[in-house]
Amino acid sequence: MTSTGQHFINGKRRSGSSEERFSVTNPATGEVLAVDTRASADDVDEAVQAARKAFTTWSRTPPAERCDAMLRWADLLQQRSDELAATESSNGGKPIKLARGFDVPGVIDNVRFFAGAARNLEGKSSGEYSPEHTSTIRREPLGVVGSIAPWNYPLQMAAWKILPAVAAGNTIVLKPAELTPLTSVMFAEAAQEAGIPDGVINIVTGSGRGAGHALISHPNIAMVSFTGSTAVGREVAKTAAGQVKRVHLELGGKAPFVVFDDADLEAAARGAVAGALINSGQDCTAATRAYVQRPHYEAFVHRVAELMTDVRLGPVDDPDTDMGSLISFRQREHVAGMVERARAGGAKVVCGGYLPDGPLARGAYYAPTLIIDAPQDSEIVQQEIFGPVLVCLPFDTDDEAIRLANDTPYGLAASAWTSNVFRAQRASREIQAGCVWINDHIPIISEMPHGGYKASGFGKDMSTYSFDEYTNIKHVMSDITGDQRKSWHNLVFTSR
Ligand code: NAD
């Protein structure tokens, strides 16, 4: 167990100055990994002031220098990748193979991508849009960004928030979820060791209503960037609106997984199991609703259940473990509650739907679960589960498939499985989601944006599109005539 500080303010790791203590645990075993005190409003203010001060120099640091520091940062993270993966795995209850093969390499690639992107901020070319002026576009950083992150991919979420902000010349104060601060602090510490100046990246750990609210309502924050649930996102947006602050919201998801009757059934079944169970289903893009065209339906349900039963639950540090625990017993209660209500409403649990016993009983494990016969308007089909649960429903026509896919409040991600190019094109055009995969579900890549439609939020993480969130566009219009009396002055006065 470590009792070192779980905050990083102005280049130093330290404890919070409030008297409220919190502990960080491994949800797969209950082991306490760290204990610390929460950030107070004074700590948040100190972090914001440090970020304000750092902004004056960081925003003027030439992009090539920002890039060099970020590349050194990526190298340091690479050297520490085993330690980062072990910490991410134990704090998140996720299998070590996922942390090693997805979380950590994904973040290192993101750092390298944004290091290069720092030198490539784009805008419209300068030109004479009026015969008497040259117009130029300046893309400028905003100032101090206040960011709030969730617990499902702590390191990746910290990276998605911090990287585009600092690559564009902003400074940042990030509040990770209280359950999972460990790797966010390690990430910020490595940035400082790589030469990113003190105050550019600050981490304050605390509750949403405490440190989180103090951060987003701080008058010196130029922008709020939030990833989390739609319910909290609404509150965050209200607070930001009250102060006319820019806001970027990455919220919940309820991804449809549409299998047409010309799809490769085995590929689709495997894709559904991987897409539903990744990170124990605690993934905002996880496949949660499989709609399968009737001729394939029974075989699909049968094969998915067979594959789910083969998934190996186990200790998260065992390289052979496929699926770990949920993030907390509270989250497991939420998942189990939704499954029980679905069962009580007449849905059938084909596999799973129970808490594993034996050695896994001390962790927040939940068995991979497949549900059928749930009505489209039921809670389990409409609301986010955030657990290892897939619901499967049949459909008859293509029109019906598109309608059902769009029939929830969310619009973060979706997939369509087909060998017909016209069906694939139609699904990618008509499904309202920020990402539509064709014959796959889950992969992400640094160069491409991630973000929602509808109640899944607005704005983009990753890719150079994210710079639109973290920069202001300024128009500079310069007279090129040198005339004292401009032609348009006639509109206002005519005297010579
Ligand atoms: P959550 O909304 O409960 O909490 C997210 C963060 O907000 C935490 O750091 C929390 O402390 C903070 N918070 C809570 N109340 C706050 C308030 N009043 N003011 C300021 N901050 C506050 O979400 P969670 O349970 O941590 O994470 C799961 C959710 O995140 C799911 O809904 C999931 O879909 C979503 N998510 C979305 C994306 C995406 O890219 N769209 C990615 C990952 C997770």
TrEMBL record:
<dbReference type="Pfam" id="PF00171">
    <property type="entry name" value="Aldedh"/>
</dbReference>
<feature type="active site">
    <location>
        <position position="250"/>
    </location>
</feature>
<dbReference type="InterPro" id="IPR029510">
    <property type="entry name" value="Ald_DH_CS_GLU"/>
</dbReference>
<keyword id="KW-0560">Oxidoreductase</keyword>
<comment type="similarity">
    <text>Belongs to the aldehyde dehydrogenase family.</text>
</comment>
<dbReference type="InterPro" id="IPR015590">
    <property type="entry name" value="Aldehyde_DH_dom"/>
</dbReference>
<protein>
    <submittedName>
        <fullName>Gamma-aminobutyraldehyde dehydrogenase</fullName>
    </submittedName>
</protein>
<dbReference type="InterPro" id="IPR015657">
    <property type="entry name" value="Aminobutyraldehyde_DH"/>
</dbReference>
<dbReference type="InterPro" id="IPR016160">
    <property type="entry name" value="Ald_DH_CS_CYS"/>
</dbReference>
<dbReference type="InterPro" id="IPR016163">
    <property type="entry name" value="Ald_DH_C"/>
</dbReference>
<feature type="region of interest" description="Disordered">
    <location>
        <begin position="1"/>
        <end position="25"/>
    </location>
</feature>
<dbReference type="InterPro" id="IPR016162">
    <property type="entry name" value="Ald_DH_N"/>
</dbReference>
<dbReference type="GO" id="GO:0016620">
    <property type="term" value="F:oxidoreductase activity, acting on the aldehyde or oxo group of donors, NAD or NADP as acceptor"/>
</dbReference>
<feature type="domain" description="Aldehyde dehydrogenase">
    <location>
        <begin position="17"/>
        <end position="476"/>
    </location>
</feature>
<dbReference type="InterPro" id="IPR016161">
    <property type="entry name" value="Ald_DH/histidinol_DH"/>
</dbReference>
